[in-house]
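To the wet lab folks,

You asked to see what we're planning to order before we commit. Fair enough. Below is the target structure as tokens, and below that is the sequence we designed to fit it. If anything looks off to you, flag it before the synthesis order goes out.
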């Protein structure tokens, strides 16, 4: 609930089966025009929450921004940060996961360029990170990453399960339009070789037909 002085109050509920410790509620604070203003944090010290326990929290914005606050987008920083994304790729579903202290939205796969584009946001005043995990398509895959049209430094590695990891930093209070390349082209019929394929297919079909005719004549 947002109050007239710009601060907000609410409740946090432990719906798990085990106690949780050191709980803090964070929020991205937006202005009346829907634009990012600030990041807030609950002022209460919650050292422990028992299963099914419900506790109140409150959060105050920077006094200089209080009159501009429209709403808070709250989240628990202790929640599992692993996210799964599904995009359309070559008329099928392509799944990948990521870990981030920021946000990833608007993911799309370009089948012509074989690139993944997305928006990565870091509303916090400190540097954040994002670590993408892609299923392996080839042993020697080499990825590249561009942010806002400019190539950036990143780390590429492979985990024991064979997934590729592509990780990079997100600057403080930033919105980055990211493009990731290095995905494998799915196998398809080579352009210009249709005649050769037809020459292979037709004789095989003719052989099958001739066998059937020959059998019928000998019955």
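Sequence we intend to order:
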């Amino acid at each position: 609930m947002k109050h007239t002085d710009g601060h907000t109050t609410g409740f946090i509920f432990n719906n798990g089966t085990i106690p949780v410790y050191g709980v803090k509620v964070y929020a991205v604070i937006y202005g009346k025009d829907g634009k990012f203003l600030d990041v807030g944090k609950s002022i209460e010290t919650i050292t422990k929450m028992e299963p099914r326990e419900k506790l109140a929290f409150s959060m105050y914005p920077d006094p200089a921004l209080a009159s501009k606050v429209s709403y808070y987008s709250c989240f628990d920083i202790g929640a599992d940060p692993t996210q799964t994304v599904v995009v359309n790729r070559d008329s099928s579903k392509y799944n990948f996961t990521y870990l981030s202290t920021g946000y990833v939205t608007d993911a799309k796969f370009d089948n012509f360029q074989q690139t993944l584009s997305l928006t990565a946001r870091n509303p916090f005043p400190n540097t954040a990170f994002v670590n993408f995990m892609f299923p392996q398509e080839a042993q020697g895959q080499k990825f590249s990453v561009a942010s806002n049209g400019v190539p950036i430094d990143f780390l590429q590695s492979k985990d024991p399960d064979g997934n590729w990891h592509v990780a990079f930093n997100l600057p403080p209070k930033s919105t980055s339009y990211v493009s990731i390349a290095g995905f494998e082209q799915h196998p398809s019929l080579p352009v210009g070789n249709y005649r050769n394929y037809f020459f292979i297919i037709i004789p095989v079909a003719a052989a099958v037909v001739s066998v059937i005719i020959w059998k019928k004549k000998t019955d």
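Structural context that might help your review: Helices lie at 194-218. Residues 8-76 form one domain.

Thanks,
Computational group
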